[in-house]
Amino acid sequence: xxxxxxxxxxxxxxxxxxxxxxxxxxxxxxxxxxxxxxxxxxxxxxxxxxxxxxxxxxxxxxxxxxxxxxxxxxxxxxxxxxxxxxxxxxxxxxxxxxxxxxxxxxxxxxxxxxxxxxxxxxxxxxxxxxxxxxxxxxxxxxxxxxxxxxxxxxxxxxxxxxxxxxxxxxxxxxxxxxxxxxxxxxxxxxxxxxxxxxxxxxxxxxxxxxxxxxxxxxxxxxxxxxxxxxxxxxxxxxxxxxxxxxxxxxxxxxxxxxxxxxxxxxxxxxxxxxxxxxxxxxxxxxxxxxxxxxxxxxxxxxxxxxxxxxxxxxxxxxxxxxxxxxxxxxxxxxxxxxxxxxxxxxxxxxxxxxxxxxxxxxxxxxxxxxxxxxxxxxxxxxxxxxxxxxxxxxxx
Length: 396
Known about the structure:
Blueprint: H1 7-10, H2 16-24, E1 30-31, H3 44-57, H4 59-62, H5 72-82, E2 94-97, H6 100-111, E3 117-121, H7 126-133, E4 138-142, E5 144-145, E6 148-149, H8 156-159, E7 162-167, H9 181-194, E8 198-201, H10 217-220, E9 225-230, E10 242-245, H11 248-262, H12 267-277, H13 281-307, E11 313-314, E12 322-326, H14 333-342, E13 345-346, E14 348-349, E15 362-366, H15 372-395
Parallel strand pairs: 1-13, 3-4, 3-7, 7-8, 8-9
Antiparallel strand pairs: 2-10, 5-6, 9-10, 11-12, 12-15, 14-15
Helix pairs in contact: 3-12, 6-7, 6-11, 13-15
């Protein structure tokens, strides 16, 4: 039989990362590919105990349909966590989502028409490009450097008519960059002057290795920022609990879009999350994640210095899960990946993270799920392959 697919469906493509992850399921593969939290950080015993408590004390509502906006106690907890002396977040502005990826989909549905101008960093999160592309925007790449997005690039010609700017200020996926305070302030000022809506995606903000934090864009411009967060990186991604904090006019439409999508995020997992975090658990749990990730990041950085040839450069992230690598001109990371997989090592080529004009001589390494000895072994293999690739590129 044959079916007629919608034009939208015909344009769908698979995530480059998800396709690579199929290869990494083989036990012999050292994978620097997936942006997956380390299972060593999952608080299994606490989650097991809280799930049992929910089923013992709150079974009926936990297993029943719930409000689209989300479990009120969890929304109140989120609102309180993001409130500060100058800015108070109302729980009515919080929407619990089925993972932060659903938030991107809902924002695409509510904010993008075919041909709408959408501003993104260079490079940016592949999952956002996938989610937004379904609604056929015109992506506009905004210049970025080692400190993230360059606010000065947001000229009136760039911002005029744009539906929003999508930005990851903290330990960005894929580059690991963090936007300094001065740039955040400048970006908020430009957005206020131009009326530009900011989508602040912040799944990694808590993962600073030193524990320091910078103010969110939400705290600087609450009436013009949609802030996205998630429990995936600080508890467990399998719970699929994320959230949005949005101005009321946007929030109302997001709720209606979510009603049509899945009615609500599972009541059971929302309650498990709330019971787990309500008494300050994250304040003691997150430092253990930071310590593990910081140690593995250092191991990888040391291995890169020891094994990667001259002409290859990379950043030194102060938090998060990723290192961004720049290869010499002419070295294609997709071709390098083929050779690496043959040697049982995987990474993610950088090209898919660019909305326009992909830079094929880039790649992303994730270190958080790989033990130190495997990091060293995998980087050594990549270093050898890079020397061969650079030599071939020079001959060509």
